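Action item from last meeting closed. Structure (300 res):
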């Protein structure tokens, strides 16, 4: 076997492993899925990936041993249990989009009949699978907007509170406690607003919506406040708290970008700019108030 054929065989083997892994993963997810509609869609995706696997397997010697990727096979069901079937399946398909270019480049080296079949697979990857994934329904996704409402508002508002105190006091304990108190009141307010908003939507429970919003808000508040209780240098505590906020924003934005087919960089950029701009504005306000009332940074 010459070097070129060897490289092709390695490519075919890797493609076969990927498709076999996804076939088995979708099958495992379908067995665990309680929603009949989702289960049928997952079984359909599993069957489709199996035909893709058989195509690549047919390009390899008959005695080639093909094993699925262990991490993908065993790790994906855990990911699904934590983050949901919608996110997990769409996340699986994100790497398939990159495969379209690779598949297209491989067309020239195949026989006409094989080229025709690979074109069908490319079409599956480009549109058919996305169409199937778009039909998935999941309760947690229906409430994802309330999680976003709680997290995003908390990160922007509480970072602003901490930035304001950065300009007024050198006490990290005061800043941390203030953030918790303001955050608790705001969490109740946001939960109430979510309750009223959900009453207009017959598909959502007002109580669940309120609880999700309030808990999301307060969870973010606690995460942002923690550095102020363990660090005694104000600027250091603020920097770490801000990094925690950016990490939370990035994580949730990534989840939303995958689940709802949005552009991550734009969504995260807008949220991060809003957060940092608010922090800058409240810091300036804090310094101004400190100057007007002659409050020194170490006065309390």
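Sequence:
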């Amino acid at each position: 076997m010459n070097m070129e054929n060897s490289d092709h065989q390695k490519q075919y083997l890797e493609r076969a492993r990927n498709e076999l892994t996804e076939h088995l993963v979708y099958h495992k997810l379908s067995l665990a899925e309680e929603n009949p509609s989702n289960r049928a869609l997952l079984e359909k995706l599993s069957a489709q990936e199996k035909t893709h696997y058989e195509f690549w397997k047919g390009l390899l010697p008959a005695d080639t041993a093909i094993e699925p990727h262990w991490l993908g096979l065993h790790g994906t069901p855990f990911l699904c249990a934590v983050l949901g079937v919608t996110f997990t399946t769409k996340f699986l398909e994100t790497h398939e989009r990159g495969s379209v270019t690779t598949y297209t480049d491989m067309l020239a080296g195949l026989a006409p009949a094989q080229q025709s079949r690979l074109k069908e697979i490319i079409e599956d990857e480009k549109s058919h699978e996305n169409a199937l994934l778009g039909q998935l329904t999941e309760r947690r996704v229906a409430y994802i907007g309330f999680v976003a409402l709680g997290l995003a508002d908390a990160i922007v508002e509480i970072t602003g509170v901490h930035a304001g105190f950065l300009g007024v006091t050198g006490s990290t304990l005061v800043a941390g406690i203030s953030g918790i108190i303001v955050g608790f009141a705001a969490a109740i307010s946001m939960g109430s607003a979510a309750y009223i908003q959900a009453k207009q939507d017959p598909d959502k429970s007002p109580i669940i919506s309120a609880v999700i919003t309030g808990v999301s808000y307060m969870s973010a508040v606690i995460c942002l406040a923690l550095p102020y209780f363990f660090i005694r240098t104000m600027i250091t505590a603020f920097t770490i708290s801000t990094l925690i906020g950016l990490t939370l924003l990035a994580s949730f934005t990534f989840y939303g970008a995958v689940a709802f087919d949005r552009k991550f960089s734009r969504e995260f950029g807008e949220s991060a700019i809003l957060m940092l701009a608010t922090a800058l504005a409240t810091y300036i306000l804090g310094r101004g108030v400190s100057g007007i009332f002659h409050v020194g940074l170490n006065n309390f």
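Note appended to the action item: Residues 3-32 form the longest helix (30 residues).
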